[in-house]
Design brief:
single chain; 235 residues; 49% helix; globular; binds thymidine-5'-phosphate
Length: 235
């Protein structure tokens, strides 16, 4: 039914406060309006196990975690997510919009925490078989601006405080951004750069353009084909 079509696994990446989750939700609406089967999901999380890992991962009351512990947690969540949710959905022809994936681990644990990249590649091989998204939208903006915007958001894990990664300093987020930019420069065919320093509408136009060809595959589709319902997370 979808012969010749390759873009099914689309990830949304960027700093906390970059607006990616809001735009993922908007994009899900576009696919639904086009009658396309679409699933919005998120990492860490997306399964019962993953959501449990997510709350431990973000909870500052659990104490400091080093980058390796963080790596093992996010890859455990990711493997379960791939097996239980992502791969079955793609096999059904569903467009999967995923809020963060392995690029986050290279950016946050690799560039942010300093976990050696070759160790991350080994963990990735073990956990996902080096699964790479078909397309990645990178929401880029200076960390100062991301922080300003992020402070207006409420995270789901904590009753009223900042979560463990919110508490990191600007130098950490500058390294994370650098990691993302290097990844995008290495794989220009997969990445679409979204400048999210402007207004929400300016960003939305870029997101629409970055997905226009995928949406076009479904214009004229007969109807909705069983989109199932994992929900996205904020951020
Ligand atoms: P979110 O708020 O965008 O859902 O992301 C949760 C936090 O987890 C965010 O600060 C980034 C962090 N994170 C990592 O450090 N490594 C990862 O592999 C993933 C997926 C998220």
């Amino acid at each position: 039914m979808f012969s010749g079509v390759t873009t099914r696994f689309v990830t949304f990446e960027g700093l906390d406060g970059s607006g990616k989750s809001t735009h993922l939700s908007t994009a899900r609406g576009w696919f639904e309006d086009a009658g396309a089967p679409v699933l919005a999901t998120h990492e860490p999380g997306g399964t019962l196990l993953g959501d449990g890992i997510r709350s431990l991962f973000l909870d500052p009351s659990r104490g400091a975690l080093d980058g390796t512990v963080e790596t093992l947690m996010v890859f455990a969540s990711r493997r379960q997510h791939l097996l239980e949710v992502i791969e079955p959905a793609i096999a059904r022809g569903t467009v999967v919009l995923c809020d963060r994936f392995t690029d986050s681990t290279f950016a946050y644990q690799g560039f942010g925490r300093g976990v050696p990249l070759e160790l991350l590649r080994s963990a990735d091989a073990l956990a996902t078989g080096e699964r790479v998204p078909d397309r990645t939208l990178l929401f880029d903006l200076p960390p100062e601006l991301a922080r300003e915007r992020g402070q207006g958001q409420v995270r789901q894990t904590k009753p009223g405080g900042v979560d463990r990664l919110d508490a990191e300093d600007l130098a950490f987020y500058s390294r994370v951004r650098q990691g993302y930019l290097e990844a995008a420069a290495r794989e220009p065919d997969r990445f679409r750069m979204i400048d999210s320093s402007g207004s929400e509408l300016e960003t939305e136009v870029q997101v629409r353009n970055a997905l226009a060809d995928v949406l076009a595959e479904f214009s004229g589709a007969a109807g909705v084909i069983g989109a199932s319902g994992a929900s996205g997370a904020g951020g």
